[in-house]
Amino acid sequence: MNAVAENTNEQYAAKAFSAQSGIFDQLYSGNTIVNYKRDRVRAHVLQYLKPNTSILELNSGTGDDALFFAGMGHTVHATDIAEGMQQKLREKVAKHNLENLISTELCSFTQLANLNNKGPFDYIFSNFAGLNCTGELDKVLLSLPGLLTENGVITLVVLPRFCLWESLLILKGKFRTATRRWFSKNGVKARVEGTYFTCWYYNPSYLINTLKNSFDLLSVEGLCAIVPPSYLEGFAEKYPSVYSRLKKLEDRFKYSWPWKFIGDYYIISLVKK
Fold it and tell me: The CATH number of the domain where 252 resides is what?
């Protein structure tokens, strides 16, 4: 993909998520499975965080994760390309008096060489598939080692190229949605707030192979592989006993094949060599 096309797609994505920033928290804060996903990601990160860690967050959104980690005493430099998201984050930082722990910067993860604050950081974190908005993830990944301290860790939450739950939608006649990841080599159109942009899907092997010269793998776990994705709205409320059972099963098998590869997302952590 050429740089002009890549930048245009990022601008469309930024426009879409900026338009949603005013209602983003309202839309998702009450979703049981969204909250489950966020708790799972945080629990994964907490395995590797040391006291007083300096964190670079990519595509930080409205800042829920930044506030969570700052609340534990860590420092967070929260970056995003969407101005609307950054504005909401700054408002939250001020409301909670966390200016000494959270800084913000409007910057795309494809332009990390232009960061004003280059760290180095102890940890780099990206949640909920923001990195799937680029068709040049390799370039993003290869820019990370220079921003990390020795033995620094990265944790990324990414959409893989196959999702079991999504594929099962073919049984409901939703062929286009069910198969969109199957034919996604050149990206798939996504829409948020009436704005279209392109989304790509990446398996863990892509990240591991891209970073093999500078990082060692710590772990990969599936997210919403057995538990249904959050877009199946109301599932947890309609079927509470089933939902509880599925959570227990996912907790048991989240690091196992094939479940760690076929979720709506996967969480991957690697340590700098």
Answer: 3.40.50.150
